[in-house]
Amino acid sequence: MPQRSTIDPREKQLNVPKRHKVAIFREQGGPITIEDADVVHDLPRGQALVRVIYSGVCHTDLHANLGDWPVPNKLPLIGGHEGAGVVVKLGEGADQHVKIGDRVGIKWINSSCGDCVYCRKSHEPNCVKAECSGFSVDGSFQQYAVADAKSLTPIPAALSLETAAPLLCAGVTVYKACRQANFTPGDTVVIVGSGGGLGHLATQYASYMGARVIGIDTGADKKALSAKCGAEVFIDFNQSKDLIADIKAATPDGLGPQAAIVAASGAKAYEQALEYLRPRGTLVPVGLPPNATIKADVFWTVFKSLSIVASYVGNRQEAIEALDIAARGKINVVSRTLGLTDLPEVYKQMHNGQIAGRIVLDIDR
Ligand SMILES: [Zn+2]
Ligand SMILES: [Zn+2]
């Protein structure tokens, strides 16, 4: 499934205006308003100004707006952490990492300190001083965003900015999840939510890495998308009378899959995974249902030697790898493009569970 490369004419417009358009909210659960604001011209050391052209919308952005996570976010806040654009201005020292005109992505980890025990081991997402785009610092729902230059992700020439945007969080997250799922080529991997925004990408990355994917989702559309993304078997959780038995039966030796990557929100999917995984199998939770817990039966978890490996977003190198695989035509991003002014409506639909696939915003619209 090769991607068509398109350079947006706006990528060549490197002038920096005084004012720009932002989508902002002032209190948790408060309305998103589209406003004119001053562009930040005085950049701190190591920071770059990115002219954002496209940004994906992630469920996390809605959580930040609602304030329903157990960690506080900045207020007022400009959300967004799947920003794709070009570098238009550099703070002192930023030229060590990027140059004017570079095509770059703003991802969830806006900056990490580089010096703490986690950064030294390349676990930047767990950095004790990490700043998160569209959460602890303003993000990509604005035309000109400030970002840490060394943490920007270079976007390969073969990827359009519109295609790259959803990969910067959704793509990197599921690529990391696949890497942590402890499977080798030929192993069976279950992707729960295989027809969704995260799941359709997870299905493709897992297939690319050699897994035989069993997709779990519901409905004809999700089934068709799962198959298109490489799932060899699809099980509709609303039609299966015994999901655990059906999943085990779909593995070549009947012992169950080696790994389950759960990209669906819903606590039940996690408990089911622990039941159908084969001995020494790995559960990778990716979806974040609010106030959910994973209940693991101690006896069977020990007896089957199961692992639960939580996967947070990837580091800088994993972001580069996730985009590189897509740039080589291995990943087909299914998304729908709307305008920045549509963001309030997108949140409303997201809240009601009506969004299928990924939404990308054209920030100028
Ligand atoms: Zn995200
Ligand atoms: Zn650090």
TrEMBL record:
Transmembrane parts of this sequence: none
Record-linked PROSITE patterns: ADH_ZINC
Principal EC category: oxidoreductase
This protein's UniProt keywords: Metal-binding, NAD, Oxidoreductase, Zinc
Keyword Signal carried by entry: no
Keyword Disulfide bond among UniProt keywords: no
Cofactor dependency: Zn(2+)
One term of GO molecular function: zinc ion binding
CDD domains the record matches: CAD3
InterPro entries in the record: ADH-like_C (IPR013149), ADH-like_N (IPR013154), ADH_Zn_CS (IPR002328), ER (IPR020843), GroES-like_sf (IPR011032), NAD(P)-bd_dom_sf (IPR036291)
EC nos: 1.1.1.1
A GO cellular component annotation in the UniProt record: cytoplasm
Domain Enoyl reductase (ER): 29-361
Family designation: Belongs to the zinc-containing alcohol dehydrogenase family.
The name this protein goes by in its record: alcohol dehydrogenase
Organism name: Tilletiopsis washingtonensis
